[in-house]
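Hi support team,

I've been running sequence recovery on a batch of backbones for a student project. Most finish fine, but this one hangs at about 90% for roughly twenty minutes before it completes. I'm not sure whether the input is malformed or the queue is just slow. I've pasted the structure tokens below so you can try to reproduce it. Let me know if you need the job ID as well.

Thanks,
M.K.
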């Protein structure tokens, strides 16, 4: 696939009458604004309060056809301050046209893209420029704080002179509120796409990050303060159409593919497209689009996006998001429409060892049973039970992984699925890991919970059995993903290990399901029955 190039910049204009003796500004601050009135005035006052002297700051403000008093505020301030240049243009509906216009006028060594409703800390520009010059960096990423989003944390707490875009978290923030060497932008003719109302900054910033020779992070103190307006009128909060989602996804994938080779790093970079950009598009925007737009969207996704879908990413999606993604990848537009209608109501579950969604006859043929499994996808490995032993209060299980597949996964946890339910229960992380071998210790009470008010609990004295299928699940950022059954050793008879606990604890029997998965069976204790306590070694 040929990567989508960024919009080409027009050739710089030359002015023979320009005063060559005028010192070049250190930074051009670019602000595209629309109906921002007092907020843009606040932003400009914060720029006037910078410790970097005014003659080193060039401020370029482009009014995108405001209908309020924004232009009056700008005109008043520009008349008072010699370092402010203002421009007016017809309303374009997004920040791209204004930012591109300002780039053709900019003359600073660096540029900083600034939103009209945000503001900079008083020492921000001086610190950013000092770090860029000390490290000879093309991009400096500053610490950002949020106003109006109490749940948001300020990012980049530490200064990193030479940052990696993946390991140091730069890729998580593709907004353009960063210091960028202007020669980098002009050398590669980078510009913002003006046919997008959102996501254009991601494509622009991703391209700059790949082209940069060196990137630095300036942490410790807040540099840039972003506002989340209570009425939701931020330009960056506009509701996206399916067309805009198509452009964002295809262009971001194009930039990543053009600048990377296949492997885990590429998968990490593609993650934001398949976890953040696409899942929301496959629901409301897709349903609100016209049939021709839906078809074009899926045609582009199949040609330019889905061929690069990392299997590992599917585990980070919830079940409904994953079903939509797989349906969009394998089916037609009408299939995704049907799925969205099915998902509006509680879904049914089919029979089997693991809970599986039953959607509709057509969708069940389109998606495999494994695709429709609750908690899917599996982890791409076959964990095998190779050792089990009981003690007075613990059952110890040792699980062997495929060495190559298991080495790339940082945290695996033991889980259980209670037959007849649809919830996986976390049984805890491994107490030790040696190479590709994991050791887990669990208490029967974790599976029985008869002293708790649990929907899974059986009443005391019940003769019913409870069957738990054992699984491995990966933990990513506190979230459990995947559901891979642990395989029962072929050489061992089912039910080869049985343990009876004293008192009110349940009897435990380790065995296999008809499909070959390791399973724990629990029953209420019968004092007349004495089971032995062997150890299992395979």
């Amino acid at each position: 696939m040929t990567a989508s190039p960024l919009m080409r910049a027009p050739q710089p204009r030359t002015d023979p009458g320009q005063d060559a003796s005028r010192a070049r500004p250190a930074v051009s601050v670019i602000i595209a604004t629309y109906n921002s009135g007092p907020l843009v005035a606040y932003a400009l006052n914060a720029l006037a309060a910078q410790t970097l002297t005014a003659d080193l700051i060039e401020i370029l403000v482009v009014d995108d056809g405001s209908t309020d008093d924004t232009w009056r505020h700008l005109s008043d301030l520009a008349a008072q301050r010699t370092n402010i240049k203002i421009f007016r243009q017809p309303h374009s509906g997004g920040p791209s046209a204004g930012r591109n216009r300002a780039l053709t006028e900019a003359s600073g060594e660096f540029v900083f893209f600034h939103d009209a409703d945000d503001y900079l800390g008083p020492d921000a520009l001086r610190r950013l420029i000092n770090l860029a010059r000390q490290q000879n960096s093309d991009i400096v990423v500053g610490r950002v704080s949020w106003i109006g989003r109490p749940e948001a944390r300020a990012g980049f707490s530490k200064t990193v002179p030479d940052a990696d875009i993946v390991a140091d978290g730069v890729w998580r923030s593709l907004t353009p509120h960063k210091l960028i060497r202007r020669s980098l932008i002009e050398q590669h003719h980078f510009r913002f796409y003006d046919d997008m109302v959102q996501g254009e900054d991601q494509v622009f910033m991703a391209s700059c990050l790949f082209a940069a020779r060196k990137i630095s992070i300036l942490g410790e103190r807040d540099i840039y303060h972003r506002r989340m307006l209570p009425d939701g009128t931020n330009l960056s909060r506009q509701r996206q159409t399916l067309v805009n989602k198509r452009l964002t996804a295809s262009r971001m994938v194009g930039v990543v593919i053009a600048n990377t080779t296949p492997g885990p790093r590429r998968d990490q970079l593609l993650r934001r497209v398949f976890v953040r950009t696409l899942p929301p598009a496959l629901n409301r925007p897709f349903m609100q689009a016209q049939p021709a737009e839906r078809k074009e969207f899926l045609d582009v996704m199949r040609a330019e996006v889905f061929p690069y879908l990392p299997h590992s990413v599917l585990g980070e999606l919830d079940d409904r998001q994953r079903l939509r993604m797989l349906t969009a990848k394998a089916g037609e537009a009408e299939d995704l429409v049907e799925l969205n209608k099915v998902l509006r109501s509680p879904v049914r579950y089919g029979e089997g060892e693991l809970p599986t969604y039953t959607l509709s006859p057509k969708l069940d043929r389109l998606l495999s049973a494994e695709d429709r499994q609750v908690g899917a996808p599996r982890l791409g490995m076959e964990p095998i039970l190779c050792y089990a032993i009981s003690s007075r209060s613990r059952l110890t299980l040792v699980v062997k992984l495929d060495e190559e597949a298991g080495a790339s996964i940082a945290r695996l946890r033991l889980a259980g699925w209670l037959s007849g339910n649809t919830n996986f229960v976390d049984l805890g992380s491994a107490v030790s890991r040696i190479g590709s071998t994991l050791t887990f210790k669990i208490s029967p009470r974790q599976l029985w919970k008869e002293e708790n008010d649990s929907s899974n609990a059986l009443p005391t004295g019940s003769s019913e059995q409870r069957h738990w299928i054992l699984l491995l699940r990966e933990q990513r950022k506190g979230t459990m993903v995947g559901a891979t059954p642990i395989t029962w050793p072929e050489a061992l008879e089912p039910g080869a290990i049985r343990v009876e606990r004293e008192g009110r604890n349940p009897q435990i029997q380790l065995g296999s399901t008809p499909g070959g998965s390791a399973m724990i069976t629990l029953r209420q204790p019968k004092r007349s029955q004495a089971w032995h306590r062997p150890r299992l070694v395979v």
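--
Follow-up from support: It reproduced on our side and the slowdown came from queue contention, not your input. Residues 27-237 form a domain with the Spore Coat Polysaccharide Biosynthesis Protein SpsA; Chain A fold (CATH 3.90.550.10). No action needed from you.
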